[in-house]
């Protein structure tokens, strides 16, 4: 009857695992960045070039900002300009470095009952959805994508959509929201990368894209070491230099899904 | 393409296929997350049992003022929402929290802490109820033998060991399938804190239903395997032992 001591020994060996002294930093990124699959290309290259392990925390923009504010990560990579500037103004980050952009697209049922396919711009597309009262699924989670979507409704003079019965706030991440839209056969706004990598498209199709207001800028913000002295500033700086450098540019500018380019590198040296 | 429900059936079958493929190819990423799932939950079960089993017995043989209230609270805490525990542990371990200097956030240790909190009330409650029944039987004997409090607890725990095993396995079941807490305190970091449940959540988010389902079957298989193993090792359900 020795299984209990076996279990104990097993558990002890688990808990007493050796601490790892490798160089690593924690970076909070948004789900949309991770869903694009670009991180699977960039992280191994960073490991090889800098011998640095980047631990990704894939969360919503709101949570990413909170993690940076609390000093639980060393840097953040997000896409919500207003929130980023508020973060900097409060002194939580040292500076904001633009890295690249991709774009948002409007997805909807293949037969496009609202007829947004030939809309002249994003504003007109949203107005058409509202006029035809077609179902629209929103992230509804205060993420960067959700903030962008609300700004677009506002620009279309439809700031009060959240009360409408056809407007459904999922309160979930990009993937879960796309799953919801796919299940309801509804319209939805997503970043192009998440859409292209999404495996449960159902009867949905990409209907509208290309309006410059839909561009989605990603920026890198190091957490302020004056507030959080434990932050690995030197490593963060190395990572920032790499992300804005030639190898990153080459990888980002050549990253394609189904033959489509996803990101435009626009970091200034 | 309309498929009237058959697509989904197909995805479940595909999930089974994915599970088989993952297991038989001994996929190294899969072994890593299975290993971490087991490491986190088994450690949490052992710690929670070390506290919860004696606590349950102690509550049986001692009479004190708030005993009834303590037991009621403990029973209620069995339904503790994991996501709330996760948030609480996150705030305690955050760099801006009281234990921030320990630098435990986003490590397996943080996940173990959260799971101990989730599992402990369950193990303590089941252990309490089991031992209460046993105590009714043993009360006169143990008192007349003049057993000390410590001896009484040890005797009750030893003689109730099979039922207590069930308490531990229930704790294991709650822990291994838990996602809300470990997602927050572990962060689902690849090659560091990713476990089966957080991986399933991630793949569902990407719309990779078949793969997520496959991981789900692996998780169920793992839970069955652990239960079978423990029952075999402890020789329950055998004619020779009750």
What features would you describe in this structure?
- The complex is a heterodimer of chains A (269) and B (242).
- Chain A is an alpha/beta fold and 269 residues long.
- Chain A has 11 helices and 12 strands.
- Chain A has helices at 3-15, 31-35, 38-50, 61-70, 81-89, 122-132, 144-155, 174-184, 192-197, 233-243, 246-253; strands at 24-30, 53-59, 75-78, 97-109, 136-138, 167-169, 187-191, 204-208, 215-222, 256-257, 260-261, 264-265.
- In chain A, the strands form 2 sheets. In chain A, strands 1, 2, 3, 4, 5, 6, 7, 8, 9 and 12 form a 10-stranded mixed beta sheet that branches. In chain A, strands 10-11 form a two-stranded antiparallel ribbon.
- In chain A, strand 10 (256-257) and strand 11 (260-261) form a beta hairpin.
- The radius of gyration of chain A is 21 Å and the shape is globular.
- Mean pLDDT of chain A is 89; it is low at 16-20.
- Chain B is 75% helix and 0% strand.
- The interface between A and B is medium-sized, with 37 and 33 residues.
Gyration radius from CA atoms of chain A, angstroms: 21 Å
- In CATH terms, what is the architecture of chain B? Orthogonal Bundle
- The number of distinct structural domains of chain A comes to 2
Number of helices of chain B: 10
Mean pLDDT of chain B: 89
Which two protein chains have the largest interface (Cβ within 8 Å of the partner's Cβ), and how many residues from each? A-B, 37 and 33 residues
Measured by DSSP, the beta-strand proportion of chain B falls in: under 5%
């Amino acid at each position: 009857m020795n299984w209990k001591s076996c279990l104990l020994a097993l558990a002890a060996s688990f808990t007493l695992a050796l601490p790892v002294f490798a160089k690593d930093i924690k970076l909070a990124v948004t789900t949309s960045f991770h869903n694009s699959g670009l991180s699977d290309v960039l992280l191994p290259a960073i490991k090889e070039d800098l011998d640095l392990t980047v631990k990704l925390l894939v969360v919503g923009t709101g949570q990413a900002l909170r993690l940076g504010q609390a000093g639980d990560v060393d840097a953040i990579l997000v896409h919500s300009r207003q929130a980023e500037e508020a973060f900097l103004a409060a002194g939580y980050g040292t500076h904001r470095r633009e890295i690249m952009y991709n774009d948002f697209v409007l997805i909807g049922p293949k037969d496009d009952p609202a007829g947004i396919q030939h809309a002249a711009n994003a504003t007109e597309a949203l107005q058409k959805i509202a006029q035809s009262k077609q179902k629209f699924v929103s992230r509804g989670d205060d993420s960067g994508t959700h903030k962008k979507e609300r700004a677009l409704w506002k620009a279309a003079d439809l700031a009060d959509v959240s009360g409408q019965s056809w407007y459904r706030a999922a309160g979930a991440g990009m993937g879960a929201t796309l799953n919801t839209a796919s299940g309801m056969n509804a319209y939805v706004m997503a970043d192009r990368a998440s859409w292209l990598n999404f495996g449960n498209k159902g009867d949905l199709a990409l209907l509208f894209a290309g309006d410059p207001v839909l561009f989605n800028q990603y920026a890198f913000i190091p957490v302020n070491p004056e507030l959080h002295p434990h932050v690995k500033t030197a490593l963060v700086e190395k990572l920032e230099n790499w992300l804005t450098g030639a190898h990153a540019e080459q990888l980002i500018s050549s990253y394609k899904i189904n033959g489509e380019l996803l990101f435009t590198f626009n970091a200034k040296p | 393409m309309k498929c009237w429900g058959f697509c989904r059936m197909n995805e479940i079958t595909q999930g089974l296929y994915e599970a088989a493929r993952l297991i038989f190819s001994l996929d190294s990423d899969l072994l890593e997350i299975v290993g971490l799932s087991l490491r986190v939950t088994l450690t949490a079960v052992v710690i929670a049992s070390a506290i919860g089993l004696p606590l349950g017995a102690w509550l049986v043989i001692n009479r004190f003022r708030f005993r009834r209230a303590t037991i009621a609270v403990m029973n209620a805490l069995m339904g503790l929402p994991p996501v709330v525990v996760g948030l609480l542990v996150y705030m305690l371990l955050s760099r801006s929290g009281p234990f921030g200097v320990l630098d435990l956030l986003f490590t397996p240790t943080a996940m173990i802490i959260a799971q101990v909190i989730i599992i402990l009330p369950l193990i303590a409650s089941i252990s309490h109820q089991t031992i209460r029944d046993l105590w009714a039987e043993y009360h006169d004997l143990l008192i007349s033998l003049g057993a000390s409090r410590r001896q009484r607890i040890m005797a009750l725990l030893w003689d109730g060991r099979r039922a207590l095993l069930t308490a531990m396995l229930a704790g294991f079941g709650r822990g291994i399938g838990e996602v809300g807490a470990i997602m927050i305190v572990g962060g689902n970091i690849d090659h560091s804190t990713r476990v089966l449940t957080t991986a399933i959540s991630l793949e569902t988010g990407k719309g990779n239903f078949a793969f997520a389902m496959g991981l789900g079957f692996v998780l169920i298989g793992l839970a069955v395997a652990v239960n079978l193993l423990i029952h075999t090792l402890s020789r329950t359900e055998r004619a020779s032992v009750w």
